[in-house]
Structures are given as structure tokens and as C-alpha cells.
Design brief:
The chain has 605 residues and is an alpha+beta fold. It has 20 helices and 22 strands.
Length: 605
């Protein structure tokens, strides 16, 4: 791969990885009669979506499995005047299968995409190029070029990319010689026994994806440039490995994020990059108010007070005005605002510990998924008084009825047109309105709740989750999350494999975490869910112009089996993040089942 590569994803040995996947519990389940009808029903949809996205290779997973005798690599390149996606497949020993796949692609592109094919001899190698017929309103001509050299198939959606590979065919490419690549590989190793290897230059890859999606819209904020100029260019690269079924774990992965310091200060980075401060510490037990039924549990350290002030230059540059301090001061002094000292009474009282939880309420509905964030506090009383004062001045806030805690405030966003919304005390932030549409972005949550309890500022998507957490804490005899078998298995594995010193750790209890999404997907209601994830998906669809009913996610959830059938087979997974002098190490595990798989799944294996 050349140094023009912004991201690369490699399956190091397809036949070997297939065998390991089949012997992993997740792989066996996906190939069983329980799930196979669902996955088979999605193959054509995925192929069509890839083709419609401009990736005109028309390779299917079945094709790759048939022709790959070794490594498969996908790369995203930023060329001099354009970008390209390329695929390299080791096809040695599978010439007949490769020829058959290429003949099918030739027929499909000509018949269904109106393609014309030309051939070019370049440095003694025959390159075939297909130019696809333009769709109505399409400006850019799509193309697909490939060449076969020494038992390898090289394909790309730009002829120049294929020529570049031919130019380098006798060498190893200059990507592996780049300092940002070497820094990652020095940490994670070459990974010869791994199944998947990947590498990315985040900002460069973001530019490639932006260009492939049509570029910036009129008056749209250049977020990539903003992040680059605000210190996040310190993250030069990242890369990692994934190993399937290593005998002890179903999946094991590790990632190194390469971000050497750009200043000599303890914060290490400049401007808004100073937000990236996650100090290591020994892992602590979950707080006593954490429900034992949570689906995911994240516990981390983040210098929140410094992160808040580091955001100043980011906000000011995004808006194009020095408004950050003005707004903070206005919140304190404006007679029409909340009149609270945000800086000294709230932000200055944040400790570094942050907890984030999710759970699911049964029976499953579009608002089943709940989220809670807790921030450890230095002075609970001061923060409580400030929040109480702010909520009393908010016409959208009301006290949620609960007799065993002084107050829980619930905020409901008004269902009114954009020109009716007023942000008292926050008028300067109205410059964040999407000027291309003349509207404000919709809130991620239509309703949320907040309180202060047991030394934490607690924020939740559902007021009832705060009540449930407080009520759980009030019980004299209560179960603790750390007493749950699956949680303890996962926590013990993370401690054994990665040690106690980490900045962030997370446990996902798969049988609980996936239930709501699974059942909503079955019923075709996932996109309408009231979860934060669904809200983000809806916003992405809206921004991409795909919000109509005809653009629903084309997933046939009706073919999924009942959740109770698969629940017993789902295993917990976990991840840790450790801050290093020049970046961060992320490591994760998925456990194997403690007992033999159910007879039906075992038979499939």
C-alpha cells in the first residue's frame, strides 16, 4: 500500500479466519439454522447498497470466500486529485474461481449498469476498466478497474489507483515505512497470528469519506478542518488487530491510538485537544445506586473541568465569534437567564470520575432503552442548589413526583416550530442554527431528567430511571451489579488480561444490551425508537436527504428468531482504555460460554 492510504482493513488469511470463525461460538450461531435465514436474506440488500454507494466492485462475500486463498485487503486512498477505494485479493491457486467471478461481474456491470469495458496494457500487465452509465442527475462517472498479477487480483474504482499498484508491485509500498504507521506497529506488533488487521489516519480518512458522500454542503461547517485546527490533529493514526477463537476467548482485540504530545504541558495537547485527558487509576466498584439489571456499564476518568474550558476555542471558531465566555458570563448575570454561576458552582465541582449506564425496560417498546450518566462531585450541596435554581427558571422543567428524594427535574422539549423557540440566556448560541436550512438541529432527546444524589450529578433519558436507581440504593438488602455472575466474569477477565490500571473500562452484558434493539428490529420499529442511538440515526438520515418512508433501513427483521431462542447463547464482552505517554491503548475481549452450547447450536457446529 502507498503512503496515500488513509485507511486499510485486512483479513490476513481468509481460509484460516473462516475456520476460526466457524469454531468461535458467535460464528457457529450465525451459521446455524436459527440465524442463517436472516443473514441470507440480507446478502443481496448489502450488495445493492454497496453498489449504489459508488463502490461498483460487485464482489459478494461469497465471491471473496471462493477466490481468496490468503489475504484480502481493502484500502481507502487520497490520490492527487481524487480518492479511491481498492481491493487486493490473494487468489493464488484459485484461477478458475477468479475467472468465473470476473465473468459474472462483467455481465452484471454491462447488463444492469450499462457499463462499457476497455483494456489497457500498462508495464506489461493488462488492466480492464469499466465505465458505468450515468444515472439521472449524476455528475461523476463511476468506474471499476482491475488487473491480475502473480496470483493477485487488484481492483479499484480509479484507474490511476490500479496503475499505482502496478508501479509498486515489485516493492513493499511506502505505507509501512511511514512514521505514523511504524508507531502503531511498534505497539501492537505485526500480528501474524491475528485474523484482522487495520490502520487509519482519522482526519485523512474523514476527508475521503466526506468527498465520497458528495462533499460539504453550502454553508456547512467544515468539521474536519475545525478539529484539525483545534488540536485534534495530534491523533496521527490508529491501528489494531482482531483474533477469533484463540482458545480462551471468542474474540480478542487491541487498538493503539497514536497521539504524541504537541506541547510540553501536562495537558499534552493544544487548544481543544486538551479535552483528551483521561488519567489512569485502579478500577473501582460501581456506585451503590447502580442497578444490578443494567445492560452496559462504563466507568472512566476524564478531567471534565479542564475539558470544559478547553472547549472554548472550539466553540468560538465554530461560531466565528468570541462567544464562549460571554455566554458563561450571561448565564450568571443576565436578568432573563437562569442566573447561576456555571463556572464556579457546577463545573469547578466536577471530579474526574464519570459513569455511564444503559438498560432496557420490559416489555420492549420504542422508549424501552434508557441511559444514565453520573459525574462525581466535590461539593454536592453547591451543585444541587445551582441546578435547582436553573430548573426553576426553565419553563420546560417540572419536578418529577417522588417522595424519597428532595427533587428530580424532568425537562420536556416543546413541540413547536423553530421560530417559536427561545433560548433565554443562550441567545448567542443561536448561531449554531443550520443556516442552509434555516432551522435548528432537533434535540437528541425530547425528554430528559436531572438530579443530584449520593455525591453524583445524575442525568438520564428517563426520570423513572433516576427513581429506580435511588429506590434501589434505599433498600437495606439489595443486589449489587458486582454480584452478578456475567458482570463479574467479564470484570475478572479484564483484570487478569489487562491489569487494574486503566482510564476507562466498560462491560456489555449482551443478553440485556441487545434485547430492545433486537425486538424493535423484528417489528420494524428500530428507527422510531426513543433511544439516543436512534435519534442519531434519524439525524444522519435527515442530513443525507434520506428521511422519507421509502428510505427505511432495508433489514428484514421478520426473519429473525425469537429473542429467547438466542438469549442463552449471548456472552458478555468488555473493553479497557489505558492512557500511554504517546496515546492510548484499547483492549477488549468477548467471553466464551461457561457451559457447552445448546444442542441445536452444537449440532450445527
Amino acid at each position: 500500500m502507498s503512503n496515500e492510504t488513509q485507511a486499510v482493513f485486512e483479513v490476513l488469511d481468509v481460509p484460516r479466519s473462516e475456520t476460526r470463525w466457524e469454531h468461535s461460538f458467535a460464528g457457529a450461531l450465525s451459521e446455524s439454522n436459527v440465524f442463517k435465514p436472516f443473514f441470507d436474506s440480507q446478502v443481496e440488500t448489502i450488495r445493492q447498497q454497496l453498489s449504489e454507494s459508488g463502490l461498483a466492485f460487485n464482489f459478494t462475500l461469497k465471491d471473496i470466500r471462493a477466490i481468496a486463498s490468503g489475504e484480502v485487503t481493502i484500502g481507502w486512498l487520497q490520490l492527487r486529485t481524487t480518492n479511491a477505494v481498492c481491493v487486493l485479493i490473494d487468489t493464488r491457486g484459485r484461477d478458475a474461481q477468479t475467472a468465473e467471478v470476473l465473468q459474472r461481474i462483467d455481465a452484471e456491470l454491462k447488463q444492469h449498469r450499462g457499463a462499457t469495458m476497455t483494456e489497457l496494457t500498462y508495464r506489461g500487465h493488462l488492466i480492464s476498466t469499466y465505465l458505468l452509465k450515468k444515472k439521472l442527475g449524476q455528475i461523476k462517472v463511476e468506474q471499476f478497474s482491475y488487473v491480475r498479477i502473480d496470483g493477485r487480483l487488484i481492483a479499484a474504482d480509479q484507474l490511476d489507483a490500479v496503475k499505482g499498484f502496478v508501479d509498486r508491485i515489485d516493492g513493499s509500498g511506502d505505507l509501512i515505512k511511514a512514521s505514523d504507521y511504524e508507531a502503531v506497529e511498534a505497539k501492537i506488533g505485526e500480528g501474524g497470528e491475528q485474523d484482522i488487521r487495520w490502520f487509519v489516519r482519522p482526519l485523512g480518512f474523514a476527508r475521503v469519506l466526506e468527498a465520497r458522500s458528495g462533499g460539504l454542503k453550502k454553508q456547512q461547517l467544515d468539521t474536519i478542518q475545525l478539529l484539525q485546527e483545534q488540536g485534534f490533529d495530534a491523533i496521527l493514526s490508529a491501528g489494531g488487530h482482531v483474533r477469533l477463537d484463540d482458545g480462551k476467548f471468542d474474540v480478542r482485540h487491541q487498538t493503539y491510538i497514536n497521539a504524541p504530545p504537541t506541547t510540553a504541558l501536562p495537558s499534552k495537547y493544544k487548544l481543544a485537544g486538551r479535552m483528551l485527558q483521561f488519567p489512569n487509576s485502579d478500577a473501582q466498584d460501581p456506585p451503590a445506586w447502580v442497578l444490578p439489571t443494567v445492560a452496559t456499564y462504563l466507568d472512566g476518568n476524564w478531567k471534565l473541568e479542564e475539558a470544559f474550558w478547553a472547549a472554548e476555542t472550539l466553540v468560538n471558531q465554530a461560531v466565528g465569534d468570541e462567544i464562549f465566555r460571554r455566554v458563561v458570563d450571561g448565564i450568571k448575570k443576565d436578568k432573563d437567564g437562569p442566573q447561576i454561576d456555571l463556572a464556579n458552582n457546577i463545573i469547578a465541582n466536577f471530579r474526574e470520575r464519570v459513569i455511564m449506564l444503559t438498560d432496557n425496560v420490559q416489555p420492549v417498546s420504542i422508549d424501552s432503552e434508557r441511559m444514565l450518566i453520573g459525574v462525581s462531585l466535590k461539593n454536592e450541596a453547591v451543585v444541587k442548589a445551582a441546578i435547582d435554581k436553573a430548573m426553576k427558571s426553565d419553563p420546560n422543567a417540572k419536578e418529577f413526583p417522588y417522595p424519597h428524594h428532595s427533587w428530580i427535574w424532568q425537562v420536556t422539549q416543546p413541540d413547536v416550530s423553530d421560530d417559536e423557540i427561545e433560548l433565554e440566556g443562550f441567545e448567542d448560541f443561536e448561531e449554531f442554527i443550520d443556516e442552509s436550512e434555516g432551522k435548528r438541529a432537533p434535540p437528541l432527546l425530547n425528554q430528559w431528567a436531572i438530579t443530584v444524589y449520593d455525591g453524583y450529578l445524575l442525568f438520564s433519558s428517563h426520570a423513572q430511571m433516576l427513581v429506580d436507581s435511588i429506590e434501589h440504593h434505599r433498600q437495606s438488602e439489595r443486589e449489587a451489579l458486582q454480584g452478578q455472575a456475567d458482570f463479574e466474569r467479564m470484570r475478572a477477565a479484564l483484570l487478569d488480561q489487562h491489569g487494574p490500571d486503566r482510564a476507562i473500562w466498560r462491560v456489555l452484558r449482551s443478553d440485556r444490551a441487545f434485547r430492545a434493539k433486537y425486538e424493535l428490529l423484528q417489528r420494524g420499529e428500530l428507527k422510531q425508537s426513543d433511544s439516543v442511538l436512534a435519534a442519531i440515526v434519524r439525524r444522519m438520515f435527515k442530513e443525507s436527504g434520506q428521511e422519507g418512508d421509502d428510505e427505511e433501513l432495508k433489514v428484514d427483521g421478520a426473519k429473525l428468531p425469537d429473542f429467547e431462542v438466542v438469549k442463552q447463547h449471548l456472552q458478555p464482552s468488555g473493553v479497557t482504555l489505558k492512557t500511554e505517554p504517546d496515546g492510548w491503548f484499547v483492549r477488549g475481549l468477548m467471553l466464551k460460554p461457561t457451559e457447552a452450547p445448546a444442542r441445536a447450536v452444537a449440532a450445527q457446529r
